[in-house]
Amino acid sequence: MHFTTGGHHLNSMALLDILVYPDPRLRTRAEPVEHFDDALQRLIDDMAETMYAAPGIGLAATQVNVHQRLLVIDVSENQDALQVYINPVLIGSGELIESDEGCLSVPGAIVPVYRYPNIKVSALDRDGQPFEKEVSGLLAICLQHEVDHLDGKVFVDYLSQLKRDRIRKRLIREQRPTDLRSASSKEASAVS
Ligand SMILES: [Zn+2]
Asked: How far is CA 131 from CA 8, 89, 104, 134, 158, in A?
């Protein structure tokens, strides 16, 4: 007999803590993945579970304080098509387009960012096998957002100093362990 839980089986996976801006660990530049071992498989499963639970459409290892070049993405409507990119390299093309993005590490902020509409991505899959594909739309934007994380960049870097400071101050205030925590951190929907 089978029980389904709406797509995602929890098994023995664990939810990981997501670093929140302006945590300085988000500024770490991730190193290439070299070992495709059991620990990596477990990390991928835990990152996927953490992303789905958030809920988000993408998560970079940097965001869970693991500084390896690994990210998980699921831009499918039913959140049932996990994509894993290891040591990804992106080549962007086309005229930059503005998109409104959210970020699991910057709760409650929607930020307009200019991104390439088309991306050619080369990466390794979870077994270390190389693949290459050309993508566009939401997946292309999400890939650029996540690779920024691996390079120690956060999307607020694209904002003016004034707007960035405003977000930073709000998040520091909200992270205080008091009952005054604002409810506004739950606004964002499609976040990564
Ligand atoms: Zn993000």
From this structure: 26, 11, 27, 11, 30
The secondary structure element, H or E, covering residue 131 is strand 130-136
CA of 105 to the centre of ligand 1 (A): 6
**Choosing from 49, 95, 134, 146, which is the catalytic residue?**
146
Burial (0-12, 13-18, 19+ Cβ within 10 Å), 3: exposed
Is 31 catalytic? The answer is: no
For residue 121, how far is its CA from the centre of ligand 1 (angstroms)? Answer: 18
CA of 3 to the centre of ligand 1 (A): 33
pLDDT digits (tens, 9 = 90+) for 162-183: 999 999 999 999 987 755 444 4
Q: How far is the CA of 129 from the centre of ligand 1 (A)?
A: 26
Which two structure tokens, joined as six digits, stand for 63? 């965001």
Distance CA 54, CA 116 (A): 26
| pLDDT (tens digit per residue) in 112-130 | 999 999 999 999 999 999 9
Q: Both tokens of residue 49? A: 């579970």
